[in-house]
Amino acid sequence: MRKFFKVLLLIIVLLVVVVGVFAIFIKFREMPKYKVENIAINVEVTPQRIEKGMKLASMLCFSCHYNSESQKFTGRLLSEAPQFGEIHSANITKDSIAGIGKLTDGQLIYFIRTGIKPDGEYVPPYMPKLIHIADEDLYSIIAYLHSSDSRVQADPTPSPKSQQSFLTKFLVTIKAFKPFDYPKEAIPLPDTTNQVAWGRYITLYQYECYTCHSKDFATNNYGFPEKSPGYFGGGNKMYQLDGSKISTLNITSDKETGIGVWTEDDFVKAVKTGIVPNGQSSLRYPMIPYLNLTDTELKAIYAYLKTVPALKHKVDRKFAD
Ligand code: HEC
Ligand code: HEC
After folding, report:
1. Which residue's CA is minimally distant from atom 8 of ligand 2?
2. Domain coverage including residue 152
């Protein structure tokens, strides 16, 4: 019997040591490195691309990379993402040291699609990756980053290095957070004459509304968005800029718990301006007003959302903790 307890004790001690060593390894590790594929693309900068890229970037990149002090894309502390650690979005101005001036178009495109930086370092989901957006739209974003717009002009302010939380480091270690594959084939623009197909593209592939509006970032199916649990039923809890939490809302056509009673006009106004029907207050961050979407685009999103199965799922608008 005594021997049995001795062996048991030894096993427990060994386990504690192994777990401890693993925890120390995680705590002090850097973000893992992955192999970088060389993408040979030189984006031709045209006025059309710059215009489209500015529009896309204003709704896709601005909220994280724009710094209101420098009035440029010099990055900021992402106070709304404390669970990930102390995360600073990068300086993505044209500065060749602090910014992205030295990166090739291929390196930028590879990073935005996969999350792997030119030096191989992986950037976890606190920077969303555009895995389905059409090649042409991505080229437009790149063209905009090369443009003469004042917000992307070289600024030497370095962005502090992010300090990832233990949770983030743990999740990258067990590969729950890992890079996306680079697309194997070219991704064409959608057929804009088919309202639902176009709306689906805008909703899922350009602005990725489902990532926030489904059950949880952790259970989303990024490869096949429609297979995400609680698809568009809301309930995903997220931080506001002051660190308080709110839930995303159900935007399926369910009449009681979703937006089934809204008219097309109600929807267009809400997404564009943040003002909801009969609402006393406007929609809160991180639901940004999609100011630069045209009414035709907003109507296409509405038409697509009407085809999404209605989900009865009540979300408390006032949720906070
Ligand atoms: C939700 C916040 C968020 C959004 C939205 C976002 N980014 Fe980022 N981005 C980050 C963070 C955080 C980092 C820095 C990661 C790190 O290295 O710690 C980053 C890093 C980068 C880098 C890497 C720079 C380098 O040092 O190699 C580039 C390029 C970039 N972002 C471009 C974009 C573009 C283009 C968009 C819009 C299509 C965008 N980002 C949207 C948060 C965001
Ligand atoms: C970064 C996460 C995020 C993204 C991306 C996002 N939303 Fe939201 N959305 C929210 C949050 C959070 C709320 C709730 C805001 C509140 O309660 O004040 C919300 C609210 C809404 C509402 C109001 C619903 C109601 O019942 O009042 C609509 C409509 C909506 N979003 C549509 C969209 C559309 C369309 C897109 C894509 C173009 C989108 N959202 C992208 C986070 C997001």
Report:
1. 287
2. 47-173
